[in-house]
């Protein structure tokens, strides 16, 4: 692993991963390939060592651009985060998810396959695909957690597009012996997450005294993982994972959504003792549910624990406190990513009719 391209490195997990990688490995050169959609922010990468890090703006669907990049930078490792990642947006506009998540992954795979076959035939290489637990569908109370062999049953256009990309990646291993690994991870939270997702949106709204929109009855269950733990898992898969294998990654933290929102409110009550909005819980509003809302996810992480020795290191409460503190002390970042027409448009499209 010498020249790594991280796709989607200006997004939430990608930017955290680049920071983690540059900290833990002094020998790699990291190319952040990102088109900078509404979800990509170069502010999330400020202050990085520019000797070992370079931003390259481009589209994973642009084959000429990809071929040039792989050739010029002699890319031997791909860590593929770039995607449309928000379920609610996939309900509004599924086409963009097909384009980016399915076709984009195909174009990236095909570029890597051809470049590696011609130029790095006998060298170590890796294509790591970052995916989601949502490909497995939904659980009810008492159902067994998702494991690596659970059949795929995606329910949203987002989940279906990620499932499709996972199948493509798998097929490139099976058919072309391409050195791939896949990780399927649960809900991440932490610094630099765009406030369209539950946790940062609740922090942002609560601080401003705005309603906290909880979908349905708030009883849905996700598994929550602090983003740095996810980055560590990906790094361990890159360095010790078995080619062709899939690893489930999760946080062993599964309260219902309403409990998460209440925890955030309590933390804010303590951190902002002079806020006029205390108790912040008063801001909670139950709103119309997400169409097709998956009830529960739970992920079995015994394979990655057993084979690679990875376990999550953050308890939910500790991770939430760190996250709230980060958002409170990074108002410049928050203002810059939310002070756009596109953010306000999204809030009005998604919430005004609920
Ligand atoms: P994000 O939406 O924050 O970031 C996505 C990034 O991809 C953005 O920087 C965007 O500009 C970039 N991008 C989009 N289309 C592109 C294109 N055509 N070419 C180049 N770049 C493009 O996403 P995230 O939450 O950081 O998720 C990253 C990956 O991890 C996704 O593949 C997602 O499916 C997966 N994942 C996310 C979570 C989670 O909880 N956020 C959990 C499990 C898996
Ligand atoms: O499970 C992994 C997935 O987690 C990732 O693959 C996705 O990229 C990521 O976006 C996330 O998907 P979710 O739909 O679970 O995340 P979100 O933060 O949008 O919602 C979390 C839960 O909170 C979900 O049950 C819906 C609910 N919710 C969300 C929002 C934005 C609300 O109740 N109110 C809201 O305003």
Brief rundown of the structure:
With 354 residues, the protein is of the alpha/beta class. The protein contains 12 helices and 11 strands.
Written overview of the protein:
It is a single chain. By secondary structure, the protein is an alpha/beta fold. It folds into 2 domains: 3-186 and 225-251 and 296-314, NAD(P)-binding Rossmann-like Domain (Rossmann fold, 3-Layer(aba) Sandwich), CATH 3.40.50; 190-221 and 255-292 and 315-348, UDP-galactose 4-epimerase, domain 1, CATH 3.90.25.10. The strands form 3 sheets. Strands 3-2-1-4-5-6-10 form a 7-stranded parallel sheet, with helices on both faces. The chain is built from 12 helices and 11 strands. The structure holds nicotinamide-adenine-dinucleotide and 2'deoxy-thymidine-5'-diphospho-alpha-D-glucose.
Q: Any key phrases for this structure?
A:
354 residues; alpha/beta; Rossmann fold; UDP-galactose 4-epimerase, domain 1; 7-stranded parallel beta sheet; two-stranded parallel ribbon; 12 helices; 11 strands; globular; binds nicotinamide-adenine-dinucleotide; binds 2'deoxy-thymidine-5'-diphospho-alpha-D-glucose
